[in-house]
Amino acid sequence: MKKPDYIKLVRWSDEDQCFIGSIPDLCGDCCDGESQKEVYLQLLDIEGGWIEAFDKEGKEYPPARVFPYKKLSAVAGCELQADKIRLSLGLTQTEFAEVLKVPVKTLRKWEQGETSPSGAAQSLLKIAAVKPELLLQAL
């Protein structure tokens, strides 16, 4: 049986003052820690434990979510529009800003054409447009 590739999310919680880890399609919020890397490593261990348990019991894995996105064609050579990329991923401004690690205010300015993303941000937008699953998993 092919092991599914579950989306792992790490987010900051102001309420808890720590990073929270989640595997939405497997167990939801399941760990926390002081750094994103620490939480992500915990998520890998937790996912491995669940997969091992399913294998041991001979159960099928829960289906891994496929994020509804539309690949944007001809990304190279065209202006990357943050709002279209965000909408194609089905994310709110707050969610997309968290994924890109930028303030929501900055994202809004990009979307309204007031400012342009830096070189690094443009690279992240290009990844989000072409391979969104990589961006969502890596960050």
Q: What's the helical proportion of residues?
A: 40-55%
Q: Assign the CATH superfamily of the largest domain.
A: lambda repressor-like DNA-binding domains
For the record, give the distance between the C-alpha atoms at the N and C termini, rounded to a whole number. 27 Å
Share in β-strands: 5-15%
- Give the class from helix and strand content and strand pairing: alpha+beta
Q: How many β-strand stretches?
A: 3
Major β-sheet profile = 3 strands, antiparallel
CATH C-level name of the largest domain: Mainly Alpha
- Average pLDDT level: 81
Number of helices: 6
Q: Quaternary status of these chains?
A: single chain
According to CATH, what is the topology of the largest domain?
Answer: 434 Repressor (Amino-terminal Domain)
Question: Judging from the principal axes of the Cα atoms, what is the shape?
Answer: globular
Element order: H for helix, E for strand: EEEHHHHHH
Radius of gyration: 17 Å
Order of strands side by side in the largest beta sheet?
1-2-3
The CATH architecture of the largest domain would be Orthogonal Bundle
**Which consecutive residue ranges, at least 5 long each, have pLDDT under 50?**
69-78
